[in-house]
Structure formats: C-alpha cells, structure tokens
Amino acid sequence: MPKAMARTYDDDASATTGLAGRVFAVARRRPVDTLAALVAAAGVATILVNALALQQGRHPAALQREAPAQHGARTDAAPAPQRSELVAQIQEALLARGYYDGAVDGVFGAKTSAAISAFEQASGTAVTGVASDRVLAALLVAPANAARVAPLPPRAEPPAPKPQPATTGSISAPKLMAVQRALARLGYGPVAIDGKMGAATRAALLSFERDRKLPQTGEPGPQVLRELKAVSGMALE
C-alpha cells in the first residue's frame, strides 16, 4: 500500500512537471499571446476580488443616492429665529408709545418693522424700518403713550358746493310775494311770484337798491320795503 501511494505521488509530480513544461514551451513559442492571457486573467481576478469585497459594505451607487436626500433634509429645516436684546428693547418702547401691539419677544419681523417706520415718520426722521441703536435712542426720549400718527391719506378734491335752497329771509312768503309783484310792476324782472327768495328775486332787489342809491344787500330789509312801497304805491302786506 505505501508503494502504491508513492507511485501516485510520483505520477502527480510527473504530470505537474509535464504541464509546466508544456506551458513554458507554449510561452516560448507565443510570448505575446501568453502575456495577453496573463493580463486578462489578472483583470478577471481583480474584478472578482472587488465584487467579493463590496459585498461586505454598501454599494457606492446607494451612497450617492442617499447623499442628496440627506443634504436636502439638512437644508429644508428652517433655522430658529434669533432673539435680540436690542429688538426687545425697541419693541417695549414702541409698545409704551402706542406704535406696537405685538409680543415683546426680541424677534425682528414685519410687524416690528412697520411700527419702527410709523415712529420714524411721526418723529420726522428718515424712514428705514430697521432696528438700530439710533431708533432706540429716539424712542427713549420720545414721550410715552404718544398718540400714533397715521399716514395722511391722499389729498382729495373738495366736494362741489351744494346749491343753497331759496329762502324768504326775514319776511313771510305772502309778504315776499307782494315784494315780487311790486318789483315786477316797476320793471325789475322777470320775477316769479312764488314767495321764494330765488336768484331772480335777489337780482331784482339788487337792481332796485342800486337805482335808489341804497346799500347793496339783495335782501328785502326794512329800508328796501319802505322805499319799494313809496315808489310802487302798493301795500306790501
């Protein structure tokens, strides 16, 4: 039995030696092809080693896909607003002077900016709407509980004057009708006999006063009535 095993080992050694000899002989005959085969075999071995090594970790493509998602998660989160002691003092001063009705939290926002702009406009300084040491100093010297000055609205055209209704003045409508009849008889007209103190009646009275050298009033006063009664001969009752 040991002799048989020895022969087997000798046969294997002979076979190995013979295979190496044949490979060496081929390499000597075709060195270029042999070199190319060795390079290809080395490349295949490298690929196999890399594939086996990557199975122990994570694939680079998966890492690349996850990287943008993680980056987006960081950028989507909005930073917490920062509290400023200067802003808090300005808000408290604006609140005391009637320009601000929000929370004194030290966080600068649109409401605080609008209140600063209103104070600057009311105090006659440049309107910036920005929290600054200058604004705080101006607020501290301003009187507390000051009435907030609202911006002036655009100037509108004044409404057209409404026509005043005709009046009878200090005399009754029947007596004014008698005056109108007297004026019409004397040629001051045309005058409507309606007992209303209209434009035509006033113009007739003015003409009568001018002709009689009386003060120009356009009203049927006592002096006008006496003169009108004397000239027309009519009873103005």
Describe the protein's topology.
Layout: H1 2-29, H2 31-54, H3 60-76, H4 85-96, H5 110-123, H6 133-141, H7 173-185, H8 199-211, H9 222-232
Helix pairs in contact: 1-2, 4-5, 4-6, 7-9
Notable traits:
single chain, 237 residues, mainly alpha
Descriptive overview:
The chain is mainly α. Helix content is 59%, strand content 0%. The chain is built from nine helices and no strands. It has helices at 2-29, 31-54, 60-76, 85-96, 110-123, 133-141, 173-185, 199-211, 222-232. Helix 1 (2-29) packs across helix 2 (31-54) and helix 4 (85-96) packs across helix 5 (110-123). The longest helix is centred in the N-terminal third of the chain and has 28 residues, at 2-29. The radius of gyration is 57 Å and the shape is elongated. It starts with a helix and ends in a 5-residue tail after the last helix. The relative contact order is 0.05. The model is unreliable at 1-6 and 163-167 (pLDDT under 50).
